[in-house]
Amino acid sequence: MTDDGDDLQYLRSIFARMNRTLMVPMWRLGMGRLLNAWPAVGGRILVLVHRGRRSGTRYLAPLNYAPVGDDVYVTAGFGPRTDWYRNVLADPDVTVWLPGGRWYAEVTDVTDSPDRVELLRQVLIGSGVVAPMLGIHPATMSDEELDAACPDYQVLRITPYARVRGPEGRADLAWVWAVVGGAVLARYGLRRLIARCGHSATSTAP
Predict the structure, then answer these.
(1) Helix (H, G, I), strand (E, B), or coil: what is residue 106?
(2) Among 176, 181, 156, which residue's Cα sits nearest to residue 87?
(3) Per-residue CA distances from 78 to 39, 84, 92, 170 (Å)
């Protein structure tokens, strides 16, 4: 039997695994708009493309977000030890995939802002059903309750400044749909051809 802390950690690990195995591939297939079609349930989801602070390796981090003016805000729910959070502090120049396109952007840590709790509230509302599943109810909690429930949550502002053009500005796996569609049409056409040949052979048989 696990305690509440272990249950929350388990849920977080499930969401992290889903991000790696489901969310990123769907974005790469060009389904970002679909993922954001029902924010009240599925939440608002972007992909933050950043570099490892030591390795320089390119990483993709799906995150819930809240749009505020021309900026978007995200939170590091695992606290200041979160890898992607530490990476963007070291290199704040990132690329962000939003439903309307891909942008070069700059990340700023605003955790110390006097508006932290309200910004955090908007991001958690943007998580859809995820925050309530973790025991956090951002739409109904007071500022004090929300702050107490999320003491380690870091808040960051992402400021898009230029649209990504060319191949990097498009879903790199979108070609899969053409291959799948072609395979389906080819199979359908082959079945029609076989059926027609069989019908012709039957009608001409003595």
Answers:
(1) strand
(2) 156
(3) 22, 10, 19, 30
State the CB neighbour count (10 A cutoff) for residue 168.
11
Q: Which two tokens stand for residue 76?
A: 């590091």
Q: Decide which of 158 and 130 is more confident.
A: 158
Under 8 Å CB-to-CB from 59, ≥6 apart: which residues?
49, 50, 51, 52, 83, 84, 87
28-41 pLDDT, tens digit per residue, is 999 999 999 999 88
Instruction: Please determine, for residue 152, whether its predicted confidence score (pLDDT) is greater than 50.
Output: yes
CATH class of the structural domain 4-172: mainly beta
The CA radius of gyration of the chain, in Å to the nearest whole number, is 23
Could you give the CA distance from residue 204 to residue 172 in angstroms, rounded to a whole number? 51
Domain residue spans of the chain: 4-172, 174-206
Q: What number is the average pLDDT over the span 192-198?
A: 66
Question: What is the band of 12 on the pLDDT scale with cuts at 50, 70, 90?
Answer: low
Cβ 190 vs Cβ 108: under 8 Å: no
